[in-house]
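Researcher: I'm preparing a figure for a lab meeting and need a structural model of a single chain. I don't have an experimental structure, so a prediction will have to do for now. The sequence is pasted below. Please return the structure as tokens so I can convert it later.
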Amino acid sequence: MNPDNRGQEPTRPVYAPVPRRTALSVDFGNGVNGAFVRSNIDGTMTFLLPDVRSAAAPTRPTAPQNENHDEERAIHLFKLLYSCAAALDKGEKELVNKGLELICSLATDDGEPVHRLVASFADALALRLVQPWQGVCRALQLPTTTPAPEATAARRHFAVMCPFLRLAETAANYAIIDAVQTERNAVLHVVDLGGSDPGQWLLLLRFFANRPGASTHHQILRLTIVNEEDEFLSSTAALLALEAEQLHISFQFHPVRLHINQLLSIEPLDVRSGEALVIVSTLQLHRLLANEFAEAVTRPHDRKGKGQAHATMTRADALLRKLAELSPKLMVVTEQEASHNSVEFTDRFGNALKYYGALFDALEESVPARGSALERADVERCLLLPQIRDIIACDGAQRRERHERMVDWAARMEAAGFVPATMSPGTVAQTAILAHMLAGDSRAYRVCSQNDGRCIFIYRDDVPMFSVSTWRTV
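Model: Understood. Here is the structure written out token by token.
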């Protein structure tokens, strides 16, 4: 699926034979344009697309007449969607309403992947349109919050059906063992800032039990997990304690019953002197980019308190500075390799449509090998749709899904006092082998190491979807 694909060679638009019409052109950039045409007789509007003959069809399009209709309809849907977004950005609410009406007559949330993707983005555009009227939103219960059990199940299904995060977790675990295998501290303390799956820590327990020197050096593995759900914390604690007992390793579990947004200081993490500290953040830091504030900060390399200055930073930047002061042996950061933090709505919309289009394709191709169609639908409805709504419909402090690319995170990490830590060739190789095993002959998933092993990118076909980077303090 490619929103930028313009299909066949451009043809002249086909206009219905009605008396005088006035047109408002809508250009979204990247060659995507069209026009809403208003009749001077009855006031009705029709959306015209120069590149697709069927775009001049009436409000309720006729059935397909040729084998290329599916592709043409997909192009039509994307152009409608882009033009609705551009009209919304210009405040042309009546045009947005007409465009969404056309989209709803063409796309359904239970059809082909392109239809489901367009329906999800149309949902988000509609929500953005009514967002200023909070009374209307509350009366309609918009947006509805996904219940925690359903959201948890959707994340679990996504991890199985699209193994991006499984690859990220594998890379993180190998990097952790590599970073601390020569440490002789009595305690290895791993802090999970949230977002990781319990399966990652099951695997880490096994790695820890079989690490070099495990038989001669007794060491305690202490795991701190930040999560607001009591049920998740209690079930994870029981699962890991049983595994540790079977592996005959000393294990301690420290739950922090907070959401990452509520982690205002590092005290709840209970980091103790003499521990070998590792910090893991999986798809969490971007949630802290919404709020900016001014704070007196010390330059990262000046630990004596000299050279303080006032700076505007996000809560993510402030937390990273506090974590750097703990001098961890390693910090592993996994984030979406996407640019969804732009102030410009049209840029954010276009980037999000491409990114989530790749995810919808990946989910579709995972059925039935890795999951059922029902599980795929749950992931789209309970996991991806709320993210799309957040990116498209929300602004200001309400928008939490502020994904940034690796280059932006590198700048934030270095400003906080971290420097890149190189992953071992073995870590990269083991992760790449797993990607090859999961993709099979299709090579749909692959891992690419960049910057001399300081980060890896997890690809879906030729599109980088997630980044994993490793850091240490000076």
